[in-house]
Amino acid sequence: MTEKPQPPAIEARHLVKRYKHKTAVDGISLRVARGETFGILGTNGAGKTTTVEMIAGLRKPTEGSVRILGLDPFTERAKVRQILGVQLQGAYLHGSLTARELVDLYRGFYPDPLDADEALTMVELTDKARTKFDDLSGGQMQRLSIALALIGRPQVVILDELTTGLDPRARRRVWATIESLSEQTVILISHAMDEVERLCDRVALIDAGRVLAHGTPGQLREQAGAVTLEDAFVALTGKDIQGDEEED
Ligand SMILES: Nc1ncnc2c1ncn2[C@@H]1O[C@H](COP(=O)(O)OP(=O)(O)OP(=O)(O)O)[C@@H](O)[C@H]1O
Asked: Is residue 242 scored above 70 in pLDDT?
């Protein structure tokens, strides 16, 4: 008997999210292989966060289905929580707990978490271990939320705006951390082309709730006849990556 093929890390089929006056996601399908680092690029309001929130089981799709390593994030929530790490924009963390207390709290959710000191060192927050979350700078909060997303050694990690607001040194440190995750599957939402070029094996360009193009950064440049990924983005979407949010 032949062995059953293993399911991909992520299989999202025809995801649609409709609000009363807005279709935020309009039929997005994505397949991400195990171990891949997959980038999602798009202008503000393109539907990136809504897409990954549906993938993570945090927002119910109007239509479509998601499987993470073959599991349904809605009906198999407890199992998915053990294999998925999520860092979302503006995630709420208990502000009166210190960095170390938050690390300890999150460690308790997983069977084989990273060592607490290792987690703080990974994002260079060792000297902030006793600082309350509310008293951290924006960049430090972000670095802590990255450490918390990785603390359970998740097989799949979703990172939204990984290094937005970080200084150049902190960005490089975070990149090195992501590059060290060779076994894990990473979904990365980003506006930063240098970050996507450096980290992502494949990229989906999203605009107005749809995938406009996908492929390796090199394939996207080639498809658009562009020298840089940023030029490819502008050519394929007709928009500037830093452009204003679309009107509803
Ligand atoms: N709860 C909601 N109700 C109505 N519309 C919403 C809701 N959440 C998001 N939207 C709209 O859906 C669209 C997609 O939003 P989303 O946050 O997914 O975009 P994004 O690509 O992540 O943008 P950004 O880069 O600014 O984070 C936007 O036009 C947004 O205003």
From this structure: no
